[in-house]
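hey so i finally got around to running the thing on that chain from the lab meeting. sorry it took forever, my laptop kept dying and i had to restart like 3 times. anyway pasting the input first so we r on the same page abt which one it is
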Amino acid sequence: MRGSARTFGAITITNALAAGIGCAAGVELPVDAEVAIESDGSSDPPKLRGSPMSRGPLVDATVRAALARYYPGAGIVATVSLQSSVPVARGLKSSSAVSTAFILATARAAGKEPSPLEVGRLAAEVGRRVGVSATGALDDALAGLEPGFVVTDNRQDSVLRRGEIDPAWAVLLYIPPDPHPPSPGAVSAFAREREAGERSGRAALDGDWASAMRINTELVERIMRYPYRALRERFEELGAIASGVSGLGPTLAVIAAAARLPELGELLPRDRAERRVLPFCRTFSDGGPPR
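ok and heres what got predicted. didnt touch it at all, straight out
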């Protein structure tokens, strides 16, 4: 039995580390996972196989959790394969995208088709257990499964709001080469910014995505010491809808009408950072509308 799935990376509107409310939107950075399940006829616990590039603590924990839920039993051998275009530890939700892709692929190999919310909640549970996310990042997981803005309460693993994205909008990404530190290590610093996190969360709940992103970015810049403020102000002067740090950075994301992004890109520093212009996700992970 074999299953495959494609999910996506995402950008941050509101970081849930500060107050528990998160908001994100998926972008066209695909992650493709495949899982093949067979039995070796033994009574042993499940075994995982795959290349070193396709495996690691998060993948192994995710596939084991998905097997326990969708294909429980002994003597199971799961062979995994992964292809990801999401830069790791740059604030673009690589962990959430990998986890959701493997949950879906494993479920499909078992003949199941769980809802995006079920997949997202399981990914959040695994993320907290493995330690790749302090909050579980339900917003990030769902953003990579369904188009649009999604606002979640990551303390309750619940969805608070979804919002459509103007089809004329796209995203400019400025991706420096050095990774950010793990999110659990930033918990105490973000806890001191709870009031700003709550303001950003309220703006997201009101559908004021630009204000939510600005307030969130100001607090992330204070904590992580990113020098993006002057650049962000210049983007706004030239017509950007919003801009800000994605996740814990170091990626800077700029939202604007797609036709404006080449001009805005000329403002970026000439350094070793990668630059990408991407559409927002228009594709559902299961090929249909949210359920």
